[in-house]
Amino acid sequence: MNDALRKPWQEDLASLAIDPDVLAKELAAEQLGDPLDDLNPDDPDIALVCDSGLNWLKQGHQERLQGLRVFCEHRDPRAVALLLPLLQESCPVERMSAVYALGRNPSPPALEPLLQLLQADSNAYVRKATAWSLGNYADARVLKPLIHALQNDVAAVRLWATGSVAEAGSTSPGNADIAASQLLMSLRIDAEPVVRSNCIWALGRLYETLEEPRRQELVEEFVNALLNDAEPSVRDEARIALEQLDNQEVMQRLRTLIDEGLLA
Length: 264
Hints:
Leucine-rich Repeat Variant, 2 domains, single chain
């Protein structure tokens, strides 16, 4: 594309500090807890930053981007009322950033607008952000739309939907079974290795919530991926997941596979 024809939001998308791919690292980090939970909201420095962020959200495009960066990092319930209108902005950078901020600042009024964006927004970056953010909403309504995204959307959105499907599934044994069913299917058929790897990771998070028949199915699919997936990264993820199940029968099965020369 001729640089002279680039739209301003395209420049912003290239330079925005909130890199959608950086959040991939958070999938694993979330297993250790959210570091934002350790922040003291009464810290005067944080309060000052949030006050500045609130002020920026009320101004022009560039200032709003500054404010959005603040609330992608910090939690402040006062921000929600200012973030919600930004979900309707024509600039996809602002929509995407507002979605991430509402993932960091989950609030019931944001749920329906986020679900609408996941299903209908024309920009894949926005849908990808929404797939991540909905994982922070403990509401049964998010599970089916996330499953639909995992079945039908582009690879980048499917990638983020895996973790959020697991989060939504962890709310009850029934939801866990529904989530596991789709994650197992995606593990079998998704063409993207990174999505298959994330399906394994997400299923590992659901394991303790599942009933025994489904647990056994999960183990069998992990073993199948370990032995047969064409992508080394998926095989590695399957092995890690099996080892983390802390199941003596599974560990014995792995040792047998090693003894038989099927695993290194």
